[in-house]
UniProtKB/TrEMBL annotation:
Gene3D superfamilies the UniProt entry points to: Winged helix-like DNA-binding domain superfamily/Winged helix DNA-binding domain
PROSITE patterns: HTH_DEOR_1, HTH_DEOR_2
This protein's name: DeoR/GlpR family transcriptional regulator of sugar metabolism
Provenance organism: Rhizobium lentis
Keyword Transcription belongs to the record: yes
Every HTH deoR-type domain range: 3-58
Length: 257
């Protein structure tokens, strides 16, 4: 197998399993462990995975979030339930901000159900989905394009967002611990902060697996949001931490289907 084909196969395994083992990869592809190490090093440098002891993962870490293309293929059913719960907060005539991220992109697919709407977003997937929809006044935030996050960031995006106003902003995040919300990328943090500052209400979208995790940058505190939407009932300790805040927790459970 050629090197590029092997590396693509490694990424395909990671999408399916989220974690791969070094020894297993060496056996599977009939190459040395050093060859696999080099593959993983190059893929990590490209921002595609995170090396861990004995292998690699695409699970988020304090300094790492996997590429949008891979996150888009994960947790599809849970994302759909959360998007449907988020849609309940949207009424025709609203101005809605939608941030970057694969979770937010699923919400973008549903927004035409609430038309007419004004939608402000830096999420390239949402822009692509809504650009031809009648009844959607789409404001696409420009800036520097990031393939990893499939969105637009930087000074141009932040300044544009600061000059706009929305009824509600939907903000997704890879990590919450206690009463703090985290993200590993400073450009992404600044664009999300600009949305938080420009919206009358804020809704945090969070997979239940991301509770009790931190990342490099503090994005916000929980009390900056009115609502948290997650896909499963959080643990008792998470519930206890949230009880002191004024945020409403909504669980998009399987019964919603």
């Amino acid at each position: 197998m050629k090197r590029d084909d092997r590396r693509q196969a490694i990424m395909d395994l990671l999408v399916a399993q989220r974690v791969v083992d070094l020894d297993d990869l060496s056996d599977r592809f009939a190459v040395s462990k050093m060859t696999i190490h080099r593959d993983l090093d190059d893929l990590e440098q490209a921002g595609m995975l995170r090396k861990v002891r004995g292998g690699a993962t695409i699970e988020a870490g304090g300094h790492f979030e996997s590429d949008f293309r891979f996150r888009q293929q994960q947790e599809g059913e849970a994302k759909r339930r959360m998007a449907e719960a988020a849609l309940e907060l949207v009424e025709p005539g609203m101005t809605v901000m939608v941030n970057d991220g694969s979770m937010a992109s699923v919400l973008g697919e549903l927004l035409p159900q609430r038309r007419p709407l004004t939608v402000i977003t830096n999420n390239a997937a949402v822009i692509d989905r809504l650009k031809t929809e009648s009844g959607i006044n789409l404001i696409a935030v420009g800036g520097r394009y990031s393939m990893k996050f499939n969105g637009f960031f930087g000074v141009v995006a932040e300044q544009a967002l600061s000059r706009l106003s929305a009824d509600i902003a939907f903000i997704s995040t890879p990590a919450v611990s206690g009463l703090r919300v985290y993200h590993m990328d400073d450009d992404v943090v600044r664009s999300k902060r600009a949305m938080i500052a420009s919206a009358a209400r804020r809704c945090l979208l969070l997979n239940h697996k991301r509770f009790n995790h931190t990342a490099l940058h503090v994005l916000a505190t929980i009390d900056e949001f009115e609502v948290i939407i997650t896909d499963q009932e959080p643990t008792i300790d998470v519930r206890a931490a949230l009880e002191g805040s004024n945020v409403q927790l909504r669980v998009a459970s399987q019964e919603r289907k």
